[in-house]
Structure formats: structure tokens, C-alpha cells
Here is the input.
Amino acid sequence: MASNTFGELFRLTTFGESHGPAVGGIIDGCPAGLAVDKQRIQYELNRRKPGQSRFTTPRKESDEIQLLSGVFEGHTTGTPIAFSIVNKNQNPKDYSHLKDTYRPSHADYTYEKKYGRRDYRGGGRSSARETIARVVGGVFGRLVLDRFNTVIQAYVSSIGDVSLDKSYNELDLSTVESNFVRCPDTPTAEKMMNHIDEVKEMGDTLGGVITCVIKNPPLALGEPVFDKFHADLAKAVMSINAVKGFEYGSGFSAAKMRGTQHNDRFYVEDDKLRTQTNYSGGIQGGITNGEDIYFNVAFKPIATLMQKQKSVSRDGTDVSIEGKGRHDVTVIPRAVPIVEAMSSLVLTDHLLRQKAHDLL
Amino acid sequence: MASNTFGELFRLTTFGESHGPAVGGIIDGCPAGLAVDKQRIQYELNRRKPGQSRFTTPRKESDEIQLLSGVFEGHTTGTPIAFSIVNKNQNPKDYSHLKDTYRPSHADYTYEKKYGRRDYRGGGRSSARETIARVVGGVFGRLVLDRFNTVIQAYVSSIGDVSLDKSYNELDLSTVESNFVRCPDTPTAEKMMNHIDEVKEMGDTLGGVITCVIKNPPLALGEPVFDKFHADLAKAVMSINAVKGFEYGSGFSAAKMRGTQHNDRFYVEDDKLRTQTNYSGGIQGGITNGEDIYFNVAFKPIATLMQKQKSVSRDGTDVSIEGKGRHDVTVIPRAVPIVEAMSSLVLTDHLLRQKAHDLL
Amino acid sequence: MASNTFGELFRLTTFGESHGPAVGGIIDGCPAGLAVDKQRIQYELNRRKPGQSRFTTPRKESDEIQLLSGVFEGHTTGTPIAFSIVNKNQNPKDYSHLKDTYRPSHADYTYEKKYGRRDYRGGGRSSARETIARVVGGVFGRLVLDRFNTVIQAYVSSIGDVSLDKSYNELDLSTVESNFVRCPDTPTAEKMMNHIDEVKEMGDTLGGVITCVIKNPPLALGEPVFDKFHADLAKAVMSINAVKGFEYGSGFSAAKMRGTQHNDRFYVEDDKLRTQTNYSGGIQGGITNGEDIYFNVAFKPIATLMQKQKSVSRDGTDVSIEGKGRHDVTVIPRAVPIVEAMSSLVLTDHLLRQKAHDLL
Amino acid sequence: MASNTFGELFRLTTFGESHGPAVGGIIDGCPAGLAVDKQRIQYELNRRKPGQSRFTTPRKESDEIQLLSGVFEGHTTGTPIAFSIVNKNQNPKDYSHLKDTYRPSHADYTYEKKYGRRDYRGGGRSSARETIARVVGGVFGRLVLDRFNTVIQAYVSSIGDVSLDKSYNELDLSTVESNFVRCPDTPTAEKMMNHIDEVKEMGDTLGGVITCVIKNPPLALGEPVFDKFHADLAKAVMSINAVKGFEYGSGFSAAKMRGTQHNDRFYVEDDKLRTQTNYSGGIQGGITNGEDIYFNVAFKPIATLMQKQKSVSRDGTDVSIEGKGRHDVTVIPRAVPIVEAMSSLVLTDHLLRQKAHDLL
Here is the structure.
């Protein structure tokens, strides 16, 4: 059956189609007593919102959250937190041309085969609008993580041909929000923006890579042998639309390294065990060791193009389609808060799981 | 809590430490009426067994399976299938030197922090010996997949510096078992073997990449928005020891492609919708579209070295450790059946999930 | 963690406090292609609504459902179905007297101990208003069950001292809705209504028993050894507020029977195996055998009384409390659709689970 | 799919047919650091063993447990604890007469309809032999509960026509093991034993009721709205073979009580909130309030009779069957440790769930 629930103990269940009445979700298992900061939720929703810059679609979506339950006198009560965001820009007529047509590299064909029918308006459930609920869930997770001083920060490390050639610890991550592409290195950010402008002219689209860093993660999170911390993290980010790859710590480059290079030697600092290098990416044997967790997420280019493409309709006829309205050249900058949100959900869920375990 | 169960409807729960009495598991939810082929189980167990070649450890492990339940008159009965493989080579004394020492880039330190204690003999639960149960589970999955003519085949596409520069459809995958490194290209296989020999001399170890191909997968598998087919696949293989990265279809290379290049154009063949290219890797919107599924899995080099390494003990003292007995230079060839097994579990579980869904 | 999700494959997640903005839920895993009948939902919501008669509270609650997702062009799409019912009668001031006081045999004290705080307005999450979402979920289940001609019908078989002394197959269950107490036997119904009137005068409250019958249930539902059909049914109805006991088939009377009396002898009717008696209640070994399923559910009397009661406040001081506004003497008649709804959820979930299983 | 796993965080997965190679299970999520007492496991296994007295079957089953994993140096390690008990008395020929016959009120017919085939030897998976694994799981739960001084004690409160007419707090529960029927009241126990003797002569069988008391339960266990403590308890005991009913606290008698009688008034004792009566059975709103938890479980009479019964075979032919070997007249005394075991699993699971929740 469809699975729209993420997490074991800190659980987010989401709902909503791009052009239905609303999108939203229910967070079940959120600890009681957390002060809810609605502005912080709105801030994160704005980060993922289209129309933030010249590089993203200018459709005005005012994603205003309504909290329906689980919060009383400004604090979480331990009961399920439901929330809803109304879909304001419903123009169902815009999408009638998609009713019988499958767009290339979209979910049109597979949804129809799976469910026998589909809401063809704007991608329906397969629309990235679904990620709104993830972002909200992530903020509630951060309320828990704040108590442990755990900080999650993602940024754009490549867009199309332009890549950032610095490691995360050579960068000032506090500058991520200082430019539209969310790249914490001004010269690279400039190149990325120029690259996007060029490609936009061509009616084409771009993919890219997001790097995410978790500083001061709690020790001992992760549940071998199947729910290793990085395995759950991989699933979490791979479930975001358009993601094609995940690597943590040394990642794919580990395949070319020798054991003598790759092993992270221990040392003692302030009575705490640390490692001199961190190819392990903060995770050993599937369990966090207290060092920084970092990982990369690869996104494919957007499938909707501002130029004619050939495709086929339900009855097998050749058709020609073209994106209507105005679409993004790339989703990468907007995906930054989504990657952070999914990381927040994984961290919080594993924190509660470890807490249950640590009984005695 | 520790999670040693994988899958929702076709569920494998595993147990066992490397030097405890046995390893094994329970498969719950296996459909009734499947003819059980014990030789096929043994064949797959032999594929992952150490001591298959000069490149792998010569410890003799005779991993003979005992079926304890769920099979009657040669067929599955729908009740849980328990199995056990006795650990014959128990030499606990070999491991006393590890009692108080944390090996670099192993799970020693994190297990101890998580559980307050650990079975230090041969890595205990974190040993790769745990994967035996995965391989057995995978064979039962294949019994189901056989009915759909779905075939899973993995192979080694790189070891250390030597990479195979051909795509899976340029290779004859039936030759994978023809050499010790499980690389279906003789010249590359030779280079890999020489590379391993060299590195063995140096007492060092190697990582690598495994590519896995699923031919003729059932259509419509995958459960958006969180249990997308590739998300569950990512989690499945990331949970294998030493895995650092996962990518499917175009993978990380998608980040550098344009939408015009990356979109897979539809066409009709024999009344069936197909795609001309397959950058999507057989999955669109998290649901299988019937095309081949293919993905890469990156492994780090083995952490146990046949040379002295510096580390620390529980009380923070500097110590020097060195692998005892004989250890592999690389696990990549032996990991091929494990990657296949995890793929089998994901496919079978999603097949049942889709079956439940397709009610009307 | 709090668990507000019911079901494995057909899953209902609920939210909402009695005096928060809304109550509602998400149904995940509902098969696609079902025609949604909003009037039927409203009909069931009206059945559980307060103010249906002189016996139930006259508070006007217009429980109007909003469908937020998962339905397109009048049919389910296979994606999550979210729904919300606004709480219109929010009078938070009415409840300030409960802020520091624990009502006897309510959840006030235990919620506060569990979560450290509570929404004291009208019972918050522990209010029976929560059951609205169960009723909605149950209707979607019935859309599936309709395809199998499975019919669920519950009725009131006792209220306080008045009991119906007929078995379900001596009654015309089509008359259940013909009186306010939902008892399909007019003389008994009259007695019940008089009994309620008497007890109302006294400011006291009544418990009772609901009997539920499932006609034409699908064969082979139930998942031994833990998820036996009746075990999941027991959990489902025991989770309804105020329920104290569950028995199916012969129930507690079986404890006094002999094997020779209790065994249901098989016979063949129209090439189908049937049983002459049905002490098994349609379930053998935890699996439905196709005969009628029937069970009884015992409810305690309402804890809120229209007379003074002694209790204690948070600081241990003795206090005196009395129900404000107008409250029911008994919930039994209104609980009939809730018992049916929970039965519907269990049946539908197990139907999908069996479908997944029946692969080959 | 078949579900042979019980619990969310403290999880028991069981396997085994009565005449297969072994029965056993895996406990996943058991906290690390518990001293394992094998004698205590054996003691509980002996309590459920057949052949304990003249009232139970004299088949000699030496149920000796083998621990396969998860225990190191006498303590749990936090990894899965697998265990196996070999089936020694395998006489498959004894059961050939059942191959094509469905016994009345057994699971023969329904298992065959569900799975398409069945292991007909001694009931296969539906045999009560399956409960061995529950008893083992329950002991591990008790190792956790010991830390909280929580004590579980069940006893037989009725067999056939003979009932104990005292409440649990009028009895000395330490005397439960002093007689074969596990009834802590000598005169009643004598009557029960005589009753059994009589019925045995007649080749007939008896049902009965078990009462279970949990003293000093942890406060605040239970997860509304669906996983209320008593709802999970109901499911747990209803999943035991032959159980037909469950009631807790006032149970079915609550249906006849008035609110003024039934409400449990609070008072303060040693700075702790207590209730003067305990009709709530230690649970309010689905959450434990610290008072004793008590409940009744009704069992049907054994379906296998030591006299001829009519039944039908697979092809619809009338057949006559009769129990072979020697069978129990009643399972009630032997079911006492099983009811305790299931209670232990529920308590421990909810303890861990509450622990996870109580984060801040």
C-alpha cells in the first residue's frame, strides 16, 4: 500500500495533491512540552517556496500553516500535531492537456499503472508541493534537537557544470542564505547564477548536488543491523523528488582508497574519544560516533522543459508537449531546506529510539 | 531499539554474532506453496563464503543451513521459516586482545557506547557474518520472483584503482561467476586480480563498486511518497557493512546533465510503453516502469589491516593493533550475492505490497 | 510514543482535541477507484453525533466533513485521504474549573502524568470527539467491503439493568435505527428508554453492552499467531473510550461449556463447508471461516455526573466537581456506529493483508 | 501476511510447528546489561509443560532452551536474542488420519483455506506448542520489569462449573503453585480437581477463566488513542489459543453499574495520588495510574475429545474422528504462565515506549 508515513517513534504522515484543497500532515510521537515557534515554521516554508528569486518560479504561493491539534498554550502536548496548508493557486484548466499524456521522466505513467487513475493536475501527489509537509515536520524535529545543540545545515555544492571545490569545513556555513543559490562561497555562487541564466535562455534545466552537515549530533544513534543511521538517512533523502544518489563521509571516493588511508585514527581530547580524520562521516558500524555527519545528495535536472518535447498519450499516439506557465531551471536551492528537514526527522526519530533503549 | 527486521510484508528478522553459537533468521510472510530448493540456498551461501579464492580469506567456514520451520513436504506453508547456521570456527581466545581496544573505523567504540558492553569476539554482531541470513532471505525472495521471471544480477565494476568502463548492457552478465573477482569482463578482471595481489603484499586493503541489474522487474512497484522503490533499495544496500554510497540510473552523473539530455522519451513497442533511454533506471516517481533497474553501490576498504595500526583502548591509552589470522584484501567479490539478496528482499516485499493494493 | 495510527495496510491516523481547531485524520492505503459517497459519510457522522434524541446531549455539533486530498473526480486515487471536521462549539472558559482538578475515572490525571501537561478543555484528546475520525475511516472501509457484500451491523443489547434476551439471529437487524437506543426489539427498547429517563432524574449515568454482527465476511482473514482476526478486533474495540470487555462467539460462556457442546460440527451445503452451530463466532484458529462473526462489547457508565462528586486537585486539595452544561446519561446508542467503524477498519485491513499473501 | 511478531520496541518473533524440527523465536530490542537467568526460563517452561500432573497430558516433553545469540558473558548485549527448543517427540505417523480431515473447532479448515496447504501433524503452527516461545519472551520481559519491582501473577479462577468467588485481594497469590490447578484457594482447587476427574471419565473437556494481576505497575504506560494499555493487553491475551473473552477492572459487570458506583474516587496517600476503589483496573484513559492492573481471560474447552466425533474430510465425506494418545481435559492451569508471559511482553514494550517519549 502507499506509504505516506516516515519514522518509527517520531512519525510524520503527509497528505495532499498540488491542486487539491490542501497539503499537510500529522506528526505523531512528538514529545510534550516543546515551545512551538510558528515564525520558525514559516521561515523554513519560505525557504522552500517558489518565487524566491529570479532563478525560481515567480508563482506566488503563500504557504501559510494552520495548526489543527496537538498544541496548547503554545506548547506541544504529546498528542498528534496536525497541520494544513491551503492550496491557493488552483487553476485546474491549465492541466487539461496532461489528462491523456504521459510527460517524459515524470510520474504520470507509473502512477496511472499503479493506481489505475491519477490526478493529472500539476503532477498531483507526485508534485514537489508534497515536500511542504516534510519541512514542517523537520521544524518540530529541530525543537527536539535544539535541546542537544545539534545543528543541521545543508548547502548547494554543485549546479550543472559548476562545482564548489571546497570541503564543508573550509566554508563559512552561516553564509548559506546570503545568495539565491544557497552556496556558501561567493565566487562559486556567482558562477552558478550565471550558469542558470544561460541555461534558462535555452529553455533547458539543470541538476546538482546538495551537501548536508550535522554538527554536534548525539552519540550512539542508529539501530543495526538494518536501521543503521546512514541507511535511514539514505532512505530519507532518496525519497525526495528527483534525487538519484546518496553518499556519506568518504562516499564513492572510498572505493578508490586504501585501508591505510581511510581508517580514522582515534585520539583523546578532553577525556572524549575523537577521530583525527572523519572519512567515516560521523558513523561507524551504523551508529553515530559524535563526529560531524556529512553527506551528498545528487539531483537530476527538472523534467519539465520550456521547449517542445515529444511524448506519447495513453492510446500510444505521438504528442508534443511543452511546459506552461513559468518553471524553475533547477530545484537545487529550494531543495536545501527539504534535505535538512529529512535529516531532522531521521535524527529525532533515532534519538527517541535510542532513548527507549537506554533503559537501565 | 535495535532493529533486526527488514521489510513490511515479506519480513526477514536476523540474529547472530560471529562467535556465538549460530547465525540465522526468520522469514515471516513468505507466500505458501513455493518449492524450496536447498541446493540453491547452499549455492548462494557458498558465493558469499570466505575462502573461495586466493583473494579471500582461507578460513574454512562450512555454512550449512538448517531449516527449523515453515517448510512441509518440500514447500513453504505460509508460516514463519526459521533457519540457523552453526558457527563452527569459534576461537574466542583469538580475540582477547580486542577486549579493551577500539579498532579504527570499526564498530567497537560505537557498539560499546550504544549498549554499554559488546561481544568483542570477531566484531560480534557487527561482523559481516551477519549477512549470511540476508543471503538466505534473498533466496526465498527469488522463489517468488521466479514466478515473474525477474532476474537479479550484480557484478564488481571497480576495485581500488581498476574500473570497468562499460555499461551493464555492453557486458555478458552470464560470465560473472567465471572469475574470482566477479567482473564480467576478462581483461578488467585480470587487472583487478593483479591489483589485489599488489596491495596484499603491502598489507593494505581495497574498496570498490558493485553494480546491480534487475531485469524484467514487475511494473508498478514502489510506494510513494516515502517508500519509493529506490528509497527502499537505497536503505537495503546501505545497511550492508562497509557501504558508503548508492546511486541508481544516471546517479551522481545526473547532477551534471541537462533536462533535454536526461529525459527518457517514451515509445510504443508491442503495445507496451517503453523508454528509448533509461536514465531513470527503471523507476519514475518512485514506481517501477518495467525497464531495467540498475544501481551502483560503493564500498570502503576493509578496516582490518595486516600491518600495525595505532589506536586507543577504553581507558584512553595508546595501543598498537594488527589483524591476526588471514584477512581479505577486499570484500567486494563476496558482497555481490549480498547486494543481490537485499535487492531480492526489496523486490519481493514491494511485490506483495502492490498485490495488496491492487484489490479491485 | 503516542500511537494514533490504526492498521497495517489500510491505515487510519487521527488527530484532534475536543476544543482545538479541528478533529480529523488521514487514511493511507485506501485502494484506488472507489466512488466516494459523501452523504454516506455524513449519515454515519450523524449517527454518532450528540443531540440525536432526548437521551443524548442536546449540544448542537454540526460535524461537517471536508475532504482535503486523495479524492479526484469523485473517486479515491490511492493517495492518502485527509479529512477535517471543524470544532464549532469552542467555549474554552467553560473548562477553567478543570484546569487544576482531576475528575474521577477520567483521563485527566494519567494524561498529565504521561505528558507533563494536558489540554484540559473538555477532555482534550481523551474526549470521545476523537471517534469522529474513526467513523469516517470506517466508511471508507465499507466502500471496500461493499465489493464483497460484507455487512456490519451493531446494536444495543443492554443498558444498565435492561438486557435483550435474544440472540442476534432472532432479531430483525434492519430495525436498529428505528428507535433512539438502537435496540432492534421494540419492547426492550421501551424499557431501556424508561430506564434512562429514571437514571437521568437521579443525575446518574449508565453503562451497557453493544453486540456487533458481521454477515458474509470474507473467508481466510486473520494472521496467526499474533494478529489473529479476533485479537485485532479485540484491540480495535477495546481502544474505544469507556470499553471494559470484549468477547466473541461463545465468549465468557464458553468457560462453562464442555467440548462436546462447544465444538461446531461441519456439514456441506451447496459445495461449501459450513458449521451447524457457530460457537466459534466465525473464527477458527484466528482465521475467518465464512460464518457470521459476532461479538459483545461492554461499556462502563459515563464518568461525568450531573451531581456533585468529590475529587482532588493537582496539589492534593479536596475539591467538589459537577458536570456543567448537559451531558449524556449513556453513550451506548451513540457508540454503535463507532463499534461498526472499528470493525470495518479491521476487516478492510485484514482483507488487504490476505490479498497480499495470496500471491501465487 | 502472517504476523508472528509481537510488540513495537520489545519485539518477539516466533516460529515453529508442533512436529517440525524446533520451536523458538527472536527477541529484538531487549535492553543490554540484563543478567540472564537460564533456570528462571526453564522454570517457566516447566510451568507450561504438559505432563505436570494427573490432569495434564503425560507426554514427556523436555523443553530445553538453547540460546543462540544476544547473550555474552551471562548478560544481554542489546542485539537480538535467538532461542530454539528442539521438538523431541516427533511421531508423524500418528497424524496421517488428519491429513484429509478437518477436526471440528480446530484450525485445520481455515489454515488450509488461507495457505492452500497445511502441516497437519499435531496442528502444525496452530498447536499450543507455539506458546513456548511466548513464555521465553515473557521471562526476558520480567528481567526488565524486575528493575521496577513490577510483579505479574495469574491464577485459575474458574474451571467448568467450579468458580472461585473471591476477589484477587482476598487471596494469597503466593499459593498459586501449591496445587495442580493453580487456584490459590485450597477448597476451590479441590473442587476443580474433582470436576476434572469426572469430566475426564466422560471423555469430555472443560474451559475456564484465568485472572491475572499486575502489582506495582509503572505509572503512565499506554499510548492513546489506539494503543491504549488495555487494548494492547486485550490483543495480547486474545492471541493465545482458545481464548474467547477479555475484561479488565470492572469488565462486563460495569455495564450494569451506575456512574456513582463505578467512579474511583481519588485520595492522597504519602504524597501520592491513589484511588479508593479500583473499578478502573489500574488504567484510566488507556494509561496506567499506578494502581493494580487486573483482568480476566475466558478459555473455551479443548476441541480434541477422547470420544468419537463426526466431521468431514476435504472432499466433503462424513468421517468419524477421535483423539489419539492422551490429551488434556483442560488447558487452563497450563495457560497461567502464558497469560503472564503475554502480560510481561505488553508491560515491557510499553515501558520502553514511554521511556522514548519522556525525553525532555
